[in-house]
Design brief:
The complex is a heterodimer of chains A (241) and B (194). Chain A is built from nine helices and eight strands. Chain A is α/β, with parallel strands linked by helices. In chain A, α4 runs parallel beside α9. By secondary structure, chain B is α/β, with parallel strands linked by helices. Chain B is 39% helix and 19% strand. Chain B contains six helices and six strands, in the order βαβαβαβαβαβα. The chains are: A alpha/beta (241), B alpha/beta (194).
Chain lengths: 241, 194
């Protein structure tokens, strides 16, 4: 913790974080699945016929938040969904469903084999690509805690507060945020830094976070978060002078 | 089963011996009202049909250790109304909203050879959805039964079901109680006439 109280983020349904203890050293920006497969031409989502503009909508605001968090000194965690080349970590029903809608996991596409680790489509898009020192989590499922070392890495780094961006809102972002909340992490979702293949599902996912006084955490626009970490940086500079 | 976006289960065989009904029954997610009563009534029918077919009956209760949230409805109910379901085969004390977290659920299901799950109960957007998501990541073949799952907010019912169905059934499939009961009754009849 810094030697001063950072202001809380203007969030819904409560000023985030609940404990008022926002500090770069204990906070991680989580970037969920900003991969070509989910927001790039020729990838998995494109192959299923969805509008890429919906999943790409949050990319610009996320890039701005990423730059700010790096300057602030916060932690950064990227996740990627993908399977081993032999698909031995892909559940049979997941493979069956993907083939049924014409976007089979492991099938060749314009960006390489769909949802397979190491392929061009599996890479994180350049706008928010990881840099040295940032954590990258490879996950076989929707949730970033299942079958990964994310929980261990967060605890080892002393991270208690998580700020979520990524795609898609109702699938991988929601699953990971729910599990993070179950584990006691204090979670914030940035509404303009996330998107889904369906607007209705995006809106329902945001509302699910805020029901019952914030059952899975809180939701804010990125501007509200940026203003708070900007003020925190300004006061930190002042304090060290 | 007549379900969307595909006929559940994906392997084509409704087999009670490999199926479990996972009912989220944490009182803190129980709400009052006619919508809840109707959902409970269908949950009861689903439970009875599953029991008759030989489906493993699993009741989920969230352990109170973490304190967690106390819902208004639970606080104002001095004596909870009677349970809509009968005796379960297994009771799982879950560590959190996702019933797989810090619980024996995965172990219980796999030891009993249950790969196909019917999901229902209290908190459609809460425990039911979190548990469905975790089960799907683990490879379980999931069927959400929204009309046997009490919502906290009525306008989130559509979203809760649609989220499952996108991308060809990203978390599995969705069906109505009446259609699940019909399929279970059919396999029960087949078995008894053999």
């Amino acid at each position: 913790m810094t030697d001063h109280d950072a202001a809380r983020v203007d969030a819904n349904p409560y000023p985030w974080p609940f404990d008022g203890a926002l500090a770069a050293a204990h906070t991680a920006l989580i970037l969920i699945d900003w991969q070509v497969d989910f927001c790039g031409p020729g990838g998995y989502v494109d192959r299923m016929g969805y509008d890429l503009n919906l999943t790409r909508a949050g990319l610009g605001p996320t890039a701005a938040v990423l730059a700010a968090v790096r300057a602030w000194g916060g932690h950064v965690v990227h996740t990627r969904e993908g399977h081993r080349p032999d698909l031995s970590d892909c559940p049979a029903n997941k493979l069956w469903r993907s083939k049924r809608i014409g976007a089979g996991i492991g099938d060749p596409g314009p960006t390489g084999r769909i949802l397979v680790r190491g392929e061009p489509g599996w890479e994180i898009v350049e706008e928010v690509a990881p840099i040295a020192g940032e954590l990258v989590i490879d996950k076989p499922g929707k949730g970033a805690f299942y079958a990964t070392d994310l929980d261990l890495l967060l605890h080892n780094a002393g991270i208690t507060h998580l700020v979520f961006t990524g795609i898609t809102t109702d699938v991988c972002v929601h699953t990971t945020m729910r599990d993070a909340n179950d584990r006691g992490f204090e979670c914030l979702l940035l509404s303009d830094c996330t998107g889904a293949t369906d607007v209705g599902n995006y809106e329902a996912a945001l509302k699910m976070v805020t029901m019952q006084g914030g059952v899975f955490g809180a939701v804010a626009e990125s501007a509200a978060f940026l203003s708070v970490i900007g003020a925190d940086m300004a006061s930190s500079v002042g304090a060290t002078r | 089963v007549a379900s969307r976006p595909y006929p559940w289960p994906y392997h084509g065989d409704v087999d009670p011996a490999r199926t479990a009904l996972v009912a989220c029954l944490d009182n803190r997610w129980r709400v009052a009202g006619t919508v809840a009563d109707d959902c409970d009534e269908r949950l009861g029918r689903l439970w009875t049909a599953a029991a008759a077919a030989g489906v493993l009956l699993v009741a989920i209760d969230e352990a109170p250790s973490r304190g967690g949230l106390l819902l208004g409805a639970a606080e104002t109910t001095s004596s909870p109304p009677p349970s809509p379901v009968g005796a379960p085969d297994a009771v799982i004390s879950a560590g959190a909203t996702n019933a797989f977290y810090a619980s024996a659920l995965d172990d219980v299901l796999r030891r009993a050879g249950r790969s196909d799950l019917l999901l229902a109960g209290w908190g459609l957007e809460g425990p039911v959805h979190s548990t469905l998501r975790a089960a799907n990541d683990r490879g379980f073949e999931c069927l959400l039964v929204p009309d046997a799952s009490t919502p906290l907010e009525a306008d989130l019912v559509v979203g809760s079901a649609d989220m499952v169905c996108f991308s060809g059934g990203i978390f599995g499939a969705v069906a109505e109680t009446v259609d699940v009961v019909e399929s279970l009754a059919a396999v029960t009849d087949q078995r008894s006439t053999r």
